[in-house]
C-alpha cells in the first residue's frame, strides 16, 4: 500500500502568529523581547511586527496599546505579501512617545492583529528601555543663599548638590572660578573659605564663583554663584583731632578742634567721651572738643 499524506487547511480558522523582531530597528534584541534606547526621538524605528496567516486571502491590520496606556509605541501601516503559501504582513514598530528610563524602564505592549474576516489575535510583549547617561542639569546649594561673614578665614560653608537625570550617577565637583583664590571646593561639593581669603565686606561685598560638576560618564554642568559677604561691625582703628593747640586763658567753650574717627565700616556714627579730661580742662560735645575751665 502506498501511504498518502494529506494536508488540510481550514480557511479562516487558522491561527495568526505574531512576532516582534529587531529587523529595521536601531538595537538588536531577541525575538519578542524588544528594547529601545531612552530619549530616542519619536518615529525612531524599534523593529518589525510580523503576522503570518495560512489563509492567503486574508490581509491583516495591527494595533498596539500598552498596559500603562502611554502610547510609547506605534505601528506603521501593514504591508502584506504571500510567501511559502502563507500571507505575511509586516509593519514598522516605532517610538510613539517620550522614552525616559528613569521614569519607567519596563512596559508591556499589547499587540493585536485583525484579519480581513475580523478575527483577532492578541500577544503581549515586554518592552525594555536601555539607559543612557545624561548630563547633570542643575546645581543647588544646601542653604538659601551662598554667603559668608567677612574676616573669617578657613571656615567651612555649605554644600553644592547636583541634579542629574540618572538617579544613581556619581559626581565630582570643582571650582571653574574660585573667586580669585578665596574659595575651595572638595570633590564632594563642600565649599570653604581659604586661609588667606581676608574677605572684606567694605571693599568686596560679593564674590562670583563657578561650580563645575562632572558625572561618571564625563558629562558636566557648570553654574555660577554669587557669594554674598556679610558685614560685621569692626572696631574703629584711629581717632584724631583737627586741631590740638589752644591759647592759654581761652574762654570757657572755646573750640579746640573736631574729633575724627577712622573705621573699617562705612556710614557709621560715633560718640565720643573723654576718658581723661586733664583735670576738667576740656569737655566734648558731639565731636567737638572745647575748653571747659580757664
Ligand atoms: Ca539615563
Ligand atoms: Ca548623568
Ligand atoms: Ca564691617
Automatic annotation (TrEMBL):
Any single GO CC term annotated in Swiss-Prot or TrEMBL for this entry: plasma membrane
Record bears the keyword Transmembrane helix: yes
InterPro entries: Cadherin-like_dom, Cadherin-like_sf
One example GO MF annotation: calcium ion binding
GO terms (BP aspect): homophilic cell adhesion via plasma membrane adhesion molecules
Pfam families the record matches: Cadherin
Claim: Repressor is one of the keywords in the record: no
Domain Cadherin: 35-138, 140-238
Keywords carried by this UniProt record: Calcium, Membrane, Transmembrane, Transmembrane helix
Protein's name in the database: Cadherin domain-containing protein
Amino acid at each position: 500500500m502506498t501511504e498518502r499524506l494529506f494536508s488540510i487547511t481550514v480557511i479562516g480558522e487558522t491561527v495568526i502568529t505574531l512576532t516582534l523582531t529587531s529587523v529595521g530597528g536601531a538595537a538588536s534584541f531577541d525575538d519578542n523581547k524588544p528594547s529601545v534606547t531612552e530619549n530616542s526621538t519619536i518615529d525612531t524605528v524599534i523593529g518589525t511586527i510580523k503576522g503570518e496567516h495560512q489563509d492567503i486571502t486574508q490581509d491583516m491590520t495591527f494595533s498596539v496599546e500598552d498596559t500603562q496606556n502611554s502610547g510609547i509605541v506605534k505601528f506603521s501601516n501593514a504591508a502584506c505579501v504571500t510567501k511559502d503559501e502563507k500571507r505575511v504582513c509586516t509593519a514598522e514598530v516605532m517610538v510613539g512617545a517620550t522614552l525616559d528610563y528613569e521614569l519607567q524602564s519596563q512596559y508591556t505592549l499589547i499587540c493585536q492583529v485583525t484579519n480581513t474576516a475580523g478575527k483577532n489575535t492578541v500577544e503581549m510583549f515586554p518592552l525594555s528601555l536601555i539607559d543612557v547617561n545624561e548630563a547633570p542639569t542643575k546645581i543647588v546649594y544646601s542653604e538659601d543663599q551662598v554667603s559668608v561673614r567677612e574676616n573669617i578665614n578657613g571656615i567651612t560653608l555649605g554644600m553644592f548638590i547636583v541634579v542629574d537625570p540618572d538617579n544613581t550617577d556619581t559626581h565630582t565637583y570643582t571650582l571653574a572660578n574660585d573667586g580669585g583664590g578665596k574659595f575651595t571646593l572638595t570633590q564632594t561639593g563642600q565649599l570653604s573659605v581659604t586661609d588667606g581669603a581676608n574677605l572684606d565686606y567694605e571693599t568686596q561685598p560679593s564674590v562670583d564663583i563657578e561650580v563645575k560638576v562632572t558625572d561618571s560618564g564625563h558629562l558636566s554642568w557648570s553654574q555660577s554663584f554669587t557669594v554674598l559677604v556679610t558685614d560685621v561691625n569692626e572696631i574703629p582703628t584711629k581717632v584724631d583731632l583737627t586741631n590740638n593747640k589752644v591759647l592759654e586763658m581761652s574762654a570757657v567753650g572755646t573750640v579746640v578742634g573736631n574729633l575724627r574717627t577712622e573705621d573699617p565700616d562705612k556710614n557709621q556714627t560715633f560718640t565720643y567721651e573723654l576718658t581723661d579730661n586733664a583735670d576738667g580742662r576740656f569737655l566734648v560735645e558731639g565731636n567737638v572738643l572745647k575748653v571747659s575751665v580757664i
